[in-house]
Specification:
Rossmann fold; 12 strands
Length: about 400
């Protein structure tokens, strides 16, 4: 006869607290980061094993009690790396099952590299060790519907979890869905602190893990800064003489009022297939940046060899991955979006997400252009500014 649920919760919490304390002593880098997650038992059909949103670590008590001590500690470490890599916050267009597998492989490969024993049935492709989630996702997509199973003990990933799924609902399960950039910023500080603590204890992670950690601690992504620079440069928030500054009129002064000018931007997306793994991170960052402008009118042009119907976004109808309708998958012709932009109101700035593998206009257009290239992309023209995304950016954006 099984114990009552309150007793199972208490027992599981006690075991996990002990496991976390052991991690702090034996693997301080992982242990210190695990301390950042509040342990919360839930009886919810959406969490048959464990899950995290970067704040909480939810788990099903009866499942946790069925795990061995090494496997419980692996779960703790697994959830820590999901947080460090912001998997749960990422908007990832494509097959959710394939992304779940790709996320798990990346985390599990890191943990095995760090000396932890892989639980039975956990996802790991030995031939793909060293590949990140984007690269694994692309390989899985090439396999079509023939995807491996994650195993009965696989955890839940918040970003791909259906909120209506399941019949048993626990009100304590309330995940916070934040932006990947905000999550990364918060966990970057935590990672730096945990690394210092581990170093003081003389128990730093393996060299491979250290290399990965240093990558996570690098400054902000260059293309993001360049994108912001382009938008701010052409926008400016210029002052106008009408209407006047009302605060100054009663003093007998006629000073210019501040009226933020309308930002007009055109964003072209190469939908030939090469940008799929990076679309979520690109749109997330662009949407977050646009949110800092009070007035903007952005037209998104999706194109492979043919242009889709233009989509327009504003503060009243904001851009997001969910709102964006993307079709394509054929060849590549980078020219149609430029033709469309030239035939309409010229944009303040034109941004193109692409791998650069396609024909472009012979001459530069009459508006500034920023090429945002995928990691293996090439600059398609001798005009326009360019910036490259890195492989891990498609991820940034639960074992």
């Amino acid at each position: 006869m099984s114990l009552p649920r309150p007793a199972q919760e208490a027992s599981a919490l006690k075991l996990l607290a002990h496991d976390r304390a052991r991690l702090v002593i034996e693997r301080p880098f992982l242990g210190v980061l695990a301390l950042q997650l509040q342990l919360q038992p839930v009886w919810d059909s959406r969490v048959p094993t464990a899950a995290t949103d970067g704040h909480m670590l939810w788990f099903r008590p009866d499942w946790m009690l069925s795990q061995t001590e090494p496997d419980r500690r692996f779960v703790l470490a697994h959830e820590v790396w999901h947080c460090a890599l912001a998997h749960f916050a990422r908007t990832t267009p494509g097959d959710p099952k394939a992304w779940n597998i790709a996320f798990d492989h990346e985390v599990n490969a890191l943990l095995v590299c760090d000396g932890l024993a892989l639980p039975r049935g956990a996802v790991l492709f030995e031939e793909w060790t060293g590949l990140n989630a984007e690269q694994v996702f692309q390989r899985l997509e090439q396999q079509g519907e023939d995807l491996p199973e994650r195993g009965v003990n696989a955890d839940g990933h918040i970003a791909t979890m259906d909120p209506t799924e399941g019949v048993e609902i626990d009100p304590r399960f309330q995940p916070v869905r934040g932006s990947a950039a905000a999550v990364q910023s918060r966990w970057r500080v935590r990672i730096a602190g945990a690394l210092q603590q581990a170093s003081r204890c003389g128990l730093s992670p393996s060299s491979d893990i250290l290399n990965r950690v240093r990558g996570l601690l690098q400054p902000a992504i260059p293309w993001q800064a360049l994108l912001e620079q382009h938008l701010r440069k052409v926008h400016g928030g210029s002052a106008s003489w009408l209407p006047p500054n009302r605060r100054a009129i009663h003093r007998g002064l006629y000073l210019p009022g501040r009226r933020e000018s309308l930002l007009r931007a055109t964003v072209a997306i190469d939908t030939s297939g090469s940008t799929g793994a990076y679309l979520g991170a690109f749109v997330d960052e662009l949407a977050m940046l646009l949110g800092t402008f009070t007035r903007y009118d952005v037209t998104v042009l999706c194109c492979d060899t043919r242009l889709q119907e233009p989509q327009r976004f504003s503060p009243y109808d904001p851009l997001s991955v969910d709102a964006l309708q993307v079709r394509g998958g054929g060849g590549t012709d980078l020219r149609p979006p430029f033709v469309w932009a030239a035939q309409h109101d010229l944009p303040d700035v034109f941004v193109y997400l692409t791998d650069g593998d396609g024909p472009v206009p012979e001459h530069a257009p009459e508006f500034p252009v920023l090429w945002v290239l995928t990691p293996e992309g090439r600059v398609p023209a001798d005009w326009g500014a360019q910036a490259s995304m890195t492989p891990r950016e498609g991820m940034q954006r639960g074992a």
